[in-house]
Amino acid sequence: MTWLLVQRWENLLFAHWRAEPRALARLLPAGVEPDVYDASAWVAIVAFVMAESRAAAGPRWSGLPPIPELNVRTYVRVDDVPGVWFLSLDTSSRLFVTIGRALYGLRYRLARMAAVADGERVHYLSEHAAARFSAAYEPRDAPAPASPGSLEHFLVERYRLFAERGGRLV
What we know:
7-stranded mixed sheet, 12 strands, 170 residues, mainly beta, single chain
């Protein structure tokens, strides 16, 4: 696998809710099915700041300035391959909106965003004409690897995303 982009995620919020699989399936294109854990599909809000974003190949440079991103996503399978489906992606970067839409078919929207750290507590705001999100959050536990078979493992061990580009599933 060749990586196209390198970045670090900071000030991460990873929040999940159960969803009824049939209801969620209505939001997905043909060929994309909700992935299920404990008889539920799952919807997530993931808020973070992308830091040190740069091309993986070529000269190493300092990268772009920190860029907030907020995505609403779910967990899916395509031909029994697990992945992520983005219902929406908000960012304050016109560059990421343009590249994300053109190259990957992702549903990026330009939004007014701010993420401010106050010690370990993060204050996060995203505003778009169609939606608004605000939260204050901080770490709950020390970081630890997800145990195989756990809900956490199901949610985080995803290394593929699916999208529609030009009417085709990619």
